[in-house]
Amino acid sequence: MDSQDTGARALHLLQTVFGYPAFRGQQAEIVEHVGNGGDALVLMPTGGGKSLCYQIPAMLRDGVGVVISPLIALMQDQVDALAEVGVRAAFLNSTQTYEEAARIERLVRTGQIDLVYIAPERLMTQRCFDLLQDSPIALFAIDEAHCVSQWGHDFRPEYIKLSVLHEQFPNVPRIALTATADQQTRAEIAHRLQLEDAMQFVSSFDRPNIRYQIVEKANGRKQLLDFITAEHGGDSGIVYCLSRKKVEETAEFLNENGIRAMAYHAGMEHAKRASNQARFLREENIVMVATIAFGMGIDKPDVRFVAHLDLPKSIEGYYQETGRAGRDGMPASAWMAYGLQDVVLQRRMIDESEADENFKRVLGTKLDAMLGLCETLSCRRVRLLDYFGEQASPCGNCDTCLIPPVSFDGTVPVQKLLSAIYRVDQRFAAGHVIDVLRGMESERIKTWHHDSLSVFGIGADRSEQEWRAILRQVIALGLVTVDHEQFSSLKLTDAARPVLKGGQKVQLRQYQKPVKQKRAAAAPKGYVETDLTPQEQAIFDKLRWWRVETARAHSVPAYVIFVDATLREIAKAQPTSLDQMRGISGVGEKKLASYGDEIVELISAMQ
Ligand code: ADP
Ligand code: ZN
Predict the structure, then answer these.
(1) What percent of the residues of the chain are helix, what percent strand, and what percent coil, each to the nearest 5?
(2) Spans of all domains in the chain
(3) Which of 370, 419, 518, 556 is the most exposed place for a label (fewest CB within 10 A)?
(4) CB contact at 8 A, 228 and 257
(5) Which are the contacts of 305, defined by CB distance < 8 A and separation ≥ 6?
(6) Given this model, what pLDDT does residue 38 score?
(7) Relative to the alpha carbon of 206, which ligand is closest?
(8) Helix (H) or strand (E) segment spanning residue 263
(9) Among 51, 69, 87, 320, which residue has the most ligand 1 atoms within 8 Å of its CB, making it the best to mutate?
């Protein structure tokens, strides 16, 4: 197959089957490379459009494309979505009956389907190997390839064994895809999957439609509620919490306050978890409160916000979680509330973990980078992209760009704080140290005669919240540590000395009282225009109702029928014939044939 031919055929499939006018980013190059039999390692952010990178080559090449994915619960939806556009796909996993699996195996063996999704543990069985040896294979696609990394949080031991693909099927092209990979993970993927010689395609990790906001935590749940009410009323979103208990409590709190929310964590009964996930995918206007166990492979395109009530362990995790917002390219938010307690808790979790010293150091470095992001005085996006090795300029669509934080010379208050810690013999926790600074008359202060210290009351000009914000930054800067073995007492590090004695300057971020969130007046750069005229809006609403009913009748998630962006375009174009509808992004031939008449009729009825 010559490559020009491949490119043209690929574009034709993109337009007629998937209904998209053009490839995005590096998709065209990847599709052509794999379509021509090359190996590829693809790094693309969530929502970048990884699926087409293997789906189209699988259709271009003879035989069946084998997709290895750990996401058994989502295979049905993936296959249904392909069926909607007329692609023949199936899956093999442990949820099937023997008869059903045998039927799919026959289709694979005779090459009668384009794609088959297989769970990695299934792939490793002799039965499956025999099947693949007997079948025409177009390619292997290894989805969520970061699962091969032992450093990452999604490690799956079966992934390590996927190197056998190369040994057993040396002539079949392989494409590995992931949305997370710092340099180290990328090298590990290439090494473990024997993809060192594969062409690497690294896309920009920027997600311009996501607005990043990190606020200081006062009353986290209440702040969350204000945020959702002010900015995302009626939207679907995900709220991440650290513990199972907090997940349950937060979901309950949101429900009590009129927001439809469900819980998801690994401690729940499997059936309940699965049904909550299915509801989240199928329904609109619904919030999932979850631990990080939730989310991998969730390709609901209209998640409008991702909120964190607790500090994530690393920027990789944070970026992957927030990346689940706005896959459809429409405006979305990544919001987080973080405070002193988070810093203390995360540090403690590292200290108390069973890991060896080396690994603890890696975890500590990752946490420091995360704290740096929280405390930054400059653009969050610049900071995020820099972490992934990308240069950027201030984005205009994050909190620090929209409302630049005020910084101040914090040397004097920091010296006061460090002295107070020193004067109480580095044996007391944050609350007590702050009470001493503020000159509070507590029982404990009397017991220890701390009211006679020279530092007593020297910080009375600042509120407790302000002192907590200063302490948090001082911990983030590494001047103070928290000793978990000794009642969380605060201790000075060697780095504190030059500040305390030598007058080394410290620049701090001004504490800002939590304010009620307001919608930004003007749409900032990166936002997609979403305004519709009243007539277009009416059609759009009608189309959404039509979609609800159609999705229910086909028992698929609504977005499998059409995504919001497509409905919006239809509402604007108001096609009165099938020909006018052809060419709208997201309308391929199969969907045109299935739904074109209904939609044209629905629109003419409203004119
Ligand atoms: P990823 O797996 O990288 O997170 P997906 O493959 O799920 O992303 O794609 C995200 C969304 O973008 C999907 O709704 C998909 O249909 C859409 N999409 C992908 N490629 C294109 C394209 N070339 N033009 C328009 N939409 C696209
Ligand atoms: Zn910015």
Answers:
(1) 50, 15, 40
(2) 3-202, 210-402, 409-509, 534-605
(3) 518
(4) no
(5) 227, 228, 231, 232, 235, 237, 238, 325, 332, 333, 334, 335
(6) 96
(7) 2
(8) strand 261-264
(9) 51
Enter the tokens of residue 5. 């031919």
Strand, coil or helix: what is 211?
strand
* pLDDT at position 520: 44
Paired residues of 495 in beta bridges:
none
| Structural class in CATH, domain 210-402 | alpha beta
- Rounded to two decimals, the pTM is 0.82
Superfamily of domain 3-202: P-loop containing nucleotide triphosphate hydrolases (3.40.50.300)
| pLDDT reported for residue 292 | 92
Cα separation, 592 vs 586, in Å, equals 10
pLDDT averaged per 10 residues in sequence order, the chain, 607 residues:
79 95 94 97 90 97 95 86 95 92 95 95 91 96 90 79 90 92 82 93 92 93 94 94 96 96 95 92 92 86 95 92 90 94 87 85 89 92 91 94 90 95 94 95 92 94 91 88 82 93 87 57 43 88 90 87 91 93 92 94 88
* Ligand 1 site, CB within 6 A: 20, 23-24, 27, 44, 46-52, 299, 301, 327, 563, 585
CATH hierarchy code of domain 409-509: 1.10.10.10
For atom 20 of ligand 1, the residue with the nearest CA is: 49
Q: Whose CA is nearest to atom 9 of ligand 1?
A: 49
| CA proximity to 1, closest of 49, 27, 33 | 33
| Ligand 2 geometric centre to CA of 514 (Å) | 20
Residue type, 19: G
List, in order, residues 6 or more apart from 521 with CB less than 8 Å away. none
| Fold equal for 3-202 and 210-402 | yes
Q: What is the pLDDT of residue 557?
A: 86
Nearest-CA residue for ligand 1 atom 2 is: 50
Nearest to 77 by CA among 264, 262, 221, 274: 274
Give the number of the ligand closest to the Cα of residue 177.
1
- Tell me, what's the pLDDT at 512? 72
Give the class (CATH, top level) of 534-605.
mainly alpha
Shortest-distance ligand to the CA of residue 299: 1
